[in-house]
């Protein structure tokens, strides 16, 4: 199963990367926004929703450290890890990268967490995508299992309420998916949520 997702950033968007460019401390890599960053944000969003009881029909081990995931799966692999993968298992979901056309460079000030004041000599430059840019990426599931499609769509639904990158707010919607016509979650992803 394959479908397109349209993403619009509602705030400036930064995906952290150590830059090869000397004048930028936090930059984008050559891929723009890697599919792995989007996939990781989807995984985090659905794991949070399951942990907080917003989604009850799927399971999540809630672990991120490889040794903890392996330990949690001794009694069986959770649904989230079946979809997204876990150590030595790729999962059945692929997400394409997003090419970036417009990037701005901002100068920022590093803030001390304990006092909420600026750190001395701590200016840094960051590449950001300005708000209201539209992107498209592709999601591919290597299964015909409607249950896994539902989990994928739920992860996109909750990603709208989560964040992408370093705190970026986004909205997204999907194109029509012909497979699994009875899935109700599809109707909630057909239009932008934040208009």
Automatic annotation (TrEMBL):
GO biological process, one term: defense response to virus
CRISPR type III-associated protein domain: residues covered: 10-167
InterPro entries tied to this protein: RAMP_III_fam (IPR005537)
Keywords noted in UniProt: Antiviral defense
Protein name as it appears in the record: CRISPR type III-associated protein domain-containing protein
The organism of origin for this protein: Acidianus brierleyi
């Amino acid at each position: 199963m394959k479908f397109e997702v349209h993403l619009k950033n509602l705030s400036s968007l930064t995906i952290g990367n150590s830059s090869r460019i000397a004048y930028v401390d936090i930059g984008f890599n050559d891929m723009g926004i890697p599919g792995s960053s989007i996939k990781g944000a989807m995984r985090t969003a659905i794991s949070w929703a399951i942990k907080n009881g917003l989604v009850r029909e799927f399971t999540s081990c809630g672990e991120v450290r490889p040794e903890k995931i392996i330990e949690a799966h001794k009694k069986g692999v959770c649904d989230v890890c079946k979809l997204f993968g876990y150590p030595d298992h790729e999962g059945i979901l692929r997400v394409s990268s997003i090419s970036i056309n417009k990037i701005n460079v901002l100068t920022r000030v590093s803030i001390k967490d304990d006092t909420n004041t600026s750190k001395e000599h701590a200016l840094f430059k960051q590449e950001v995508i300005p708000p209201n840019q539209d992107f498209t990426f592709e999601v591919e599931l290597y299964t015909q299992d409607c249950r896994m499609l539902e989990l994928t769509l739920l992860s996109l639904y909750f990603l709208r309420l989560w964040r992408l990158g370093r705190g970026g707010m986004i909205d997204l919607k999907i194109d029509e998916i012909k497979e699994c016509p009875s899935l109700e979650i599809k109707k909630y992803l057909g239009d932008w949520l934040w208009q």
